[in-house]
Fold:
Amino acid sequence: MKQTRQTKQKQLILDVLRAEQPLTATQLYERAVRQCPTLAKSTVYRNLEAMVQCGELCRGFLENGESFFNLGGEGHHHYMICRECNRMQDLPMCPVAQLHGLTEGSGFVATDHVVQIYGYCNECAAKHI
Structure:
């Protein structure tokens, strides 16, 4: 896998993601700019895009179309996503793995899948009760 050039900004983005993932670009920028106040939002977006293209990061999409990012090569992830605060939690297992042979006999060759469950985290659910 080809990697992007190692820069201070890229290292900061990776450090933030290692501490907490997945994150949207906005969330990532907000955390990174605390450590480097001169960091430009465009630099974060440019680095994220380059790292996705090289396979260093994986990109997912929220219901509103906003991208979120996690470290590439970190395994297979599916998420439970809060509709109110966008907090994301890993599903403990892949529900599609239980559906062996789902595409068998159809001629369709599956190469990837996405499972995202939307609802409310504990904190936000308490506000709605």
User: Anything to note?
Assistant: The helical segments are 8-19, 25-35, 41-53, 122-128. The longest strand covers residues 57-61.
